[in-house]
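Hi all, long-time lurker, first post. I run a small reading group and we've been trying to get comfortable going from sequence to structure in the token notation. Rather than ask abstract questions, I figured I'd post a concrete chain and ask someone more experienced to write out its structure so we can walk through it together at our next meeting. Sequence below, copied exactly:
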Amino acid sequence: MKRVLLTGASGFIGRFAVSELLKNNYEVHALYNKSKPVEKKHVIYHKADLFDFSQQESLISEIKPTHLLHLAWYAVPGLYWNSLENFRWVQGSLELLKLFRQYDGQRAVLAGTCAEYDWSFGYCSEGVTPTHPSTLYGTCKNSLQEMTAQFSKQTGLSSAWGRIFNLYGPFEDRSRLIPYVVNSLLQDEQANCTHGHQIRDFLYVQDVASAFVALLNSSVEGPINIASGQPVSLQQVVYSIANKLERRDLVRLGTIPVLDNEPPLLVADIRRLTNEVGWKPGFNLDSGLNQTIQWWKDNPGISACDVIFR
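-- Answer (accepted) --
Happy to help. Here is the structure in token form:
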């Protein structure tokens, strides 16, 4: 029996990962802290504080998971980039990894970020593009990745590290680009944006969860980019949403300045994900946006605010 401990089960990716894990015949032990997820059949839920190490040990010694999918992290929009909370999450994650292995855990996959890379290179390839993060968030994630690799080498743990690029979909924070534009147009309000020439790499959140579970199922080790590999301008994304809602007249490009540290290009090389993990997305940008727009129609409500593209 494959028994997985999933952290961040109530989070943006975690709620989709639960279903993907069930589809892959895992016994799912889903961890949450404050808000309990909507319960799914055949899932065992645990309320836990990952910063309480005695609670961590009690939980892991009881469950004895064979697999670990660690998605939990501090992710308050706008604050997480340089919050000191990132240091706490490095500490908590290392303790989790140590206890997982101590109780005979076999395979661990942890969530990283494209913010680990040196963004001046634009095209990010594992093992080729330098890791030179410019934020505390990126620095802490990259440090944890390096420590995870060394820990795995010393203990014989099989591990991989999924570097997430731009994700979107249902339940995304309403201040982020795609939900902001969708909800502004649904409410007949202007969508104020930067010029939109920045090139990004978007992947629908259900595909992100699917890619992580495929990575967990594999024996591939080290950093793996979790992305579509398809470059698209933010202007294209915004106008695609506007065309679907027939409200192109409400889009206002160039009304928000671009940040000084905003990279013009940030796209992933996904050859390891495709060739080694053997994973392919189930959604393209068009179908993913359709799903996202419909979800927001079914779940309306947003406080309109101006958002800088990320």
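A couple of things your group might point at:
DSSP finds nine helices and 14 strands in the chain.
The radius of gyration is 19 Å.
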